[in-house]
Every structure is written in structure tokens, then in C-alpha cells.
Write a structure and sequence with these properties.
Oligomer: single chain
Order of helices and strands: EEHEHEHHEHEEE
Number of helices: 5
């Protein structure tokens, strides 16, 4: 099944995976390194960093990636040059895109606009990426949303990531490992979630 991870730098999967590098998946989220280290992930849902602009800047320094690397894209950004982004991702060899941070959490934290409208915009944008030759992995914040997206995107999905609101308290790190959710028979796509934060002997998260 390999290893899934969210990383703020593109790294060779052979150096960080489980040994079965063909199954390893890297989710490239360079905006995380523009946020204060060790702050909670909720920072990623706030308008304190231009998420997609940071991705564009980082891609200019990337030569190529393995075909199991996805880019973390804020799908509800009204200012992104989508055609340019899709072209760059394909040029660099990315397998596809992930809606991270997901609209359901961005809208929930910022309390701006309609969450349902943002969700529709996000789904339409993911379908657009798929139609333009890139794979899609959906991140959702509730079981109800996961089932709904699974039904609406059907067999277009390469996988899904469950990112409930309590995950927002996790500290930002250069690498955040995901783990397979084994009791997700209600979904046709493979499902992953953040691993619990490691805890030091004193009982504090590290």
C-alpha cells in the first residue's frame, strides 16, 4: 500500500518511503514552509499566505517529480491562472492535484461566503483538472462530505483524505505522514488520514 505523506519540499520518494516506492504518494504543499513552524495547521486555512502563489513560486525551482506526486491546491482561489498551473504541473511530471486545504475547512474557519457554493466550485475545479489530464485526490472534513464527493466524482478519484476539524490543531511540520483508514468500505476510493502526532516521553506532542 506504500506511504502517503504531505511534504513542504519535493524529495525523492525512495529516501522516505516504506520500501515499496511504486506505491508511495507525495503531496507537495510548499505553502506550509511559508507558515510559522510548529503553529497549528489551522493557519493554512486563514488568509495569511497566498497558497497557490507559493505553489507557483516553488514549482519554478522543481525540475521533475515522480509520477506519484500530487500538488496541494486551494481550489476556491479566484485569482489563480488555472491553465498555467495545470501546464506547469504536467511539465514537471506531477500525477495530479489534491484540494488541500479543503474548501469545507477554509469556509468553516473564515466564516466567509457560502460553504455549499465553495464546495460546488471546488468540485467543478477538480473535474476541470481531471479533464485536463491530471489525477485528483479529494480531501474532506466529514464522513457525510466524503460519501457525497465519492458519489459525485465516482471513479474519477485516485484516492481520498479524511481531514476532520480536529486535525487543525496538529502542528505544521515539513513532513506529515498519513495512514490508511481500513474501515472505509463505504467508499470506493482508498482513504487516508493524518497519523496521530508523535508524543515525547513527557507527554507533549513533538
Amino acid at each position: 500500500m506504500g506511504t502517503w505523506m504531505i511534504v513542504d519540499h519535493v524529495v525523492p520518494l525512495a529516501t522516505v518511503g516504506s520500501g515499496k516506492t511504486g506505491d508511495d504518494v507525495c503531496i507537495f504543499a510548499p505553502s506550509l514552509r511559508a507558515l510559522p513552524p510548529d503553529n497549528p495547521i489551522v493557519m493554512a486555512t486563514l488568509p495569511v499566505v497566498d497558497w497557490n502563489a507559493e505553489l507557483f513560486r516553488a514549482l519554478s525551482d522543481v525540475t521533475s517529480v515522480g509520477n506519484r506526486c500530487y500538488a496541494a491546491v486551494l481550489m476556491i482561489d479566484p485569482f489563480t491562472l488555472w491553465e498555467d498551473l495545470a501546464d506547469m504541473l504536467k511539465e514537471k511530471g506531477f500525477a495530479g492535484v489534491v484540494n488541500f486545504p479543503p474548501a469545507s475547512l477554509v469556509e468553516g474557519v473564515q466564516s466567509a461566503g457560502s460553504a455549499s457554493a465553495a464546495n460546488t466550485l471546488e468540485i467543478d475545479r477538480m473535474k476541470w483538472f481531471h479533464d485536463n489530464g491530471l489525477g485528483i485526490v479529494h480531501t474532506g472534513s466529514s464522513r457525510l462530505e466524503m460519501v457525497d464527493i465519492s458519489n459525485r466524482l465516482a471513479d474519477l478519484l485516485d484516492g481520498m483524505i479524511y481531514f476532520p476539524p480536529e486535525s487543525l490543531s496538529r502542528p505544521i511540520a515539513p513532513r506529515m505522514d498519513l495512514e490508511a483508514v481500513i474501515d472505509a468500505d463505504f467508499l470506493p476510493a482508498s482513504l487516508w488520514s493524518l497519523k496521530p502526532a508523535p508524543v515525547c516521553p513527557a507527554g507533549e506532542s513533538v
